[in-house]
Amino acid sequence: MALLNTPVPYPAEIWVVVRFLASRSEPVPYETVRTFLEPHVPQAKKLATAHYALSALRSLGLAEETGDGSAWALTGDLAGARPDDYAAFQRAMRSAVLGLRGHEPADTADDLRRGLAWSLTRDPFSESFNWGIVDSRHQSDAPDGEDVFVNPTRWPPFTAWATALGLGAPAPHTPQRFVADCTRAVRQVLEDHLPVGAPADALNVLRLLREQIPVVPGGAISENMGFGLPDERTVGTALSFALTRGEHEKWLVMSSDSDAKQPIKLQDPDRLSVRLCSSITRQEAANV
Known about the structure:
By secondary structure, the protein is α+β, with helices and mostly antiparallel strands. The chain is built from 11 helices and 10 strands. It comes from Streptomyces chilikensis.
């Protein structure tokens, strides 16, 4: 079941099921899930939203049926999850979709990964999208020349999934538009891997982000799909936007030493040339 095809539920609906399972100390019978989460749906209708949500979680390795198949429990990166920890849900979903932590990328997410790799080549400093814009202007941007999105029915679930994974966001000032803003994913990766207050080599941070978010330009999935960069030190616009936003929100400090040998090259629309950065420091800051 491909994640961008109906009747697969949106991530928000899957999150409701995850919260319910996480609130229980033991596997939950499917009929109990149905009764509590969809009391308005006739019991005769077996394939309700809860069914598809559980099936999607199973395809991602995040839920499983117990031995006799009568009850469900969270597994993988969601095992032991708290019902109020949406960030952990985001991290687990992103890991499953992108094939992190030694797991193969979920087959059901092939179209989603392709859409993410394409969208993250776009410029969040200046571009926002709705289906009409994507269909008329950008469908030929894939290296293989094929449409990234086969039909308009896949665009709404794509934007919902990208947002849930921290790899996209609604445009802040234009209704019904999507921006390739991966700031949430970038911040979570840096929170997981960089100690607060310790300057880190910018190129090593860039490599870390490409490893943990392989759909960004320079990452393995993006490169395998043919989206390339001039060299390793060039930062694509999506990552440049996320890092610049982190600096603006004061949870990152980016510095450039005059004698640095391998500074990274950030895209900055406010400058006439690229911005060089040799070290990145994560700061403690209030959530924004």
